[in-house]
Every structure is written in C-alpha cells, then in structure tokens.
C-alpha cells in the first residue's frame, strides 16, 4: 500500500493495468534498497526538490477518497479526504510561500466543500450541476477562495494545482449552475493544457467547451482522445451523444462506462441515465 491505497487503486488512478503498477512499485522499492536511501525527515534544504512528489501522492489519496474507484469501498471515503487535507495543511505550514502547495490546498478545500452534496440519499452520484449548493460547506469555500486570491495577488505564473484550484473557484462562486462563467473555465483549461497536455485534461476541457459551444463541438474533441480504458471518457461521450439525440450510440457508450466504473454511486447514476434514454 502507498498512502493508504492499494496497488489496484493506484493503478486505476494512473490508468494503467494493476500488474504494471505493481512492477513500478517493486522497481522503486528495489532502487531505494540498492541505493540505501534512508527513511528520515528531509532537511529544510531538501524540501523544494521533493515537494512535487509529495503533492502528487497527497492529491492521489484525496481523489481516491472523493470518488472511490473500488466497488468494495464506500462511494466517498471521508477518512481519506480528511487525511489528505490534514497532511496538505502540514506541508503548507512548512512551505507557506510555495505556490503549488497553496494551490493544492485550495483545490482540496474547494472540492471537499461539495462532498456532502456529492451522493444522494439513494446512493447515486449527483453531478455538479444538480447538487444542492446550500449543502456546500461555505467555510471551506471561503478559505479556498482566499488561497486562490492569495496566489493571484502574487503575480507569479501559476502551476497545475493553482489552475485547477482556480477552476474550482469559478464553479463554487456560482450560486446556480446556470451562472457558471464557462468562458473563464475554458480559458483556465487552455492554460492548464499548456502546463499539462494530457488526454484527461483535454477531456475535462471538452466538457467545459460543451457548455460554451455545444455538444457537437465538444464531441469532436472527445472522439480524438486515446482514453478507451477510462470510464469518464465513455461517460462524457454518452452524455454528449444523448444531448445530440443519438440514443443508440449513447446507450453503447453508457454500457462501456458502467462496465469500467468502479464507484457504485457513479455506476448507479450512469445506469439511470442509460435507462432514461428514448428509442
């Protein structure tokens, strides 16, 4: 286990087979042993060189807690999100001027603020546009917004976590989903794409583009992405196809998304959406 996560949970987060991730972890352990790297708290001068890896692990733990990838776990694991936030606060205390540390903390707080509205009483995922915003934690949102503003005021170029935090700040600033500043969200994803030109970032950008330019434009962007083994890719395709009235194709995409989805609440949501499709 790494950070309280199993090998299979880590593998799903990195979109690779479990055997591949197991081999990577084994090689890393062997390298540490061969190099006789000691297990100790790093000196202050070593923190900057190691912080990126620490933040990546903390974000991995948080994401697994916010939307568990295993059908054997609760859909939302508050123990993991709380621990990830706690540890990120500690890193922030150690490195208060590191922009990416501030950005990750803000991102976690703004995401955690929505946890109470994430799953319905019937155990089904509630998408962002359908969530009861009155159930969001306003104290966490205010703290997250303050951190985002702090980084904006610095005038320094933002990193990946800071841009993601800014995206979440836009979402949590809207009192109603219809009030979301989608041009700003797309602009932030454009900025994020330059920092992290990954297919997953491109997928999230396409979701925002759908709200701005329509499902047809977004679908053309999605179809180009090499994410066949990623459930969110098929769920996004299914929703776009549904909005375009292409029910048969949408049903097939929902089927594939349900097959790949490990989270029970997400699978329940996708199943209902599929079953609501017309002929």
TrEMBL record:
What Pfam families is this protein classified in? DUF6596 (PF20239)
Q: Which Gene3D superfamilies did the record assign?
A: Tetratricopeptide repeat domain
Endpoints of the signal sequence: none
Residue ranges of coiled coil: none
At the top level, the lineage of the source is: Bacteria
| Matches recorded under InterPro entries | DUF6596, TPR-like_helical_dom_sf
**Where in the numbering of this chain does the DUF6596 domain appear?**
50-150
PANTHER family, per database record:
BLL6612 PROTEIN, BLL6612 PROTEIN-RELATED
Protein's recorded name: RNA polymerase sigma-70 factor, ECF subfamily
